[in-house]
Design goal:
The protein folds into two domains: 280 residues, Alpha/Beta hydrolase fold, catalytic domain (Rossmann fold); 160 residues, Alpha-Beta Plaits, CATH 3.30.70.1230. The strands form two sheets. It has an eight-stranded mixed beta sheet, sandwiched between helices. The longest helix has 21 residues. The protein is of the alpha/beta class. It is built from 16 helices and 16 strands.
Length: 466
Amino acid sequence: MQVESTPRILANVPPEVRYARNGDVSLAYQVVGDGPVDLLFVPGFASNLVWNWELPAYARFLRTVSSFCRLIIMDRRGCGLSDRLSPDDQPPLEVLADDLAVVLDAVGSHHTCLFGAEDGALTCALFAATHPERADRLIIYTLDPMGDQPWDEFEDRAERDRFYDDYLARIEAGWGTTAFAVHDPLGGLVTGAPSLLHDDATVEWYTAWQQLAASPSGARALHRIYFDTDAQPILASIRIPTLILHRVGDQLEPIEESRFIAGLIPGARLHELEGEDHLWFVGDTNPIIEAIHEFITGDRMARDLERILVTVLFTDIVASTAMASDMGDRRWQDLLDQHNIRIRRQLDSYRGREIATTGDGFVATFDGPARAVRCARAIRDSVRDLGVDIRSGCHTGEVEVAGSDIRGIAVHIGARVAALAGPGEVLVSSTVKDLVAGSGLVFDDLGPHTLKGVPDPWRLYRVVDR
């Protein structure tokens, strides 16, 4: 009997992690792409070079940026895959800037563009101010300048210190828990990515992201450095071309911060973006990527978009959270590995194209709706002996294709249809049902349904087994 196996544990294989040493501290980094311009991305301390790639949205963001440059990504010391530090042994900001130079030396980059997000932007700003001969351009994404600010809501410095001390206490008590990762107003998805607040897969990824980035005491210490640093003198000393990116509706960092920073940095350009998500890799990321592309290359980014008619299939495991809890991490991961192997096998058989995995499910497209429906049934049947129930939904419509990604209202409809399916059910929209006439497929009419976020009701049908 041949036992199925898979060589990979993670759903997405990340780029190779390499290490550079600054003294006795190992610094983790990755290099992706081979474009003509070097771009060093410092995402701040909330990072883990392997886990970053496990969220499809984050992976797409990084892959797209790496398509026009040589992208260098690093975990700063004290977090992620770089050496962890004692909470009482946190380095001054100048040492963090030295770490950037060490990584750039390791990859042979003598002239680079810098892209920093959150406290990573603070480190990049200091490097740009102190090493202008090595930094060609600087991109800042939502940096809180700290210090006295004209829009400050606090009556005095003592009140502001109490506010941040309260947050640091919450970090110590709740960092890496689901409650903190979702609901904390400064560290949770409620402000970081409100558009994905109720997406279970994102909640699970984000909670694990915090856990894999730093321990609670480490996170507190890393935040403390950020809160105690007045960035304004650093910013005023920058003399290289600087682009500041900020979403106008950002629920975590107000746009006033970046407007203020733009007035501090000589010649800086502020690009105000639409949206309310704080995290740079969620929401509509195209404007962010296009702004980065134009700033570092000097050319507008040509959108590689096409619109095609496809049938979208969504699958997921019913009651997966409870199953994972009952089985434990190792057994659950083994089951997911087998689940993924079997689904990919059926996708190949029915000419499906895998778009993304969602932790316990798949998104795929087909060039024919009947093949999509039959594939959904085959997927369901192929995993039954694993003790799992699959629910599926199909919808046919026009989607916008950008590289390996798809988007558009048809994608949203497909996801909502799947969410209404019960254990073992395959639900389809009226469009799919009409297009498979003569295929021999049989359906039960479930009547019109209102789909969340989708205008007008849609008539849904359940596929009947014969």
